Amino acid sequence: MKKKMTYDEAKLHLESILNDLQENQLGVDELSVRIKEAVELVDFCKKKLHSVESEVEKVLKKTDN
Question: Is 11 a domain residue?
């Protein structure tokens, strides 16, 4: 993942990888590469979700005051 990616782009890419896995579209060599890529994408998505959650919590705390 070299370019700046949005959450939605990462999710779509993960769905594409999952689809390829489910349809047995990957050879052994590419399977390893795609699994590593999927792990990176999942990590990116988790971090993005946690970041957004923190931002929302901060905004909600401001409205409570």
Answer: yes
> Has residue 58 been placed in a domain?
yes
If DSSP codes are grouped into helix, strand and coil, which group holds residue 50? helix
pLDDT in tens, 25-51: 788 889 999 999 999 999 999 999 999
Q: Is residue 40 part of a domain?
A: yes
How far, in Å, CA of 24 to CA of 18, rounded?
Answer: 10
Residue 56 DSSP SS3: helix
HEC profile for 12-48? HHHHHHHHHHHCCCCCHHHHHHHHHHHHHHHHHHHHH
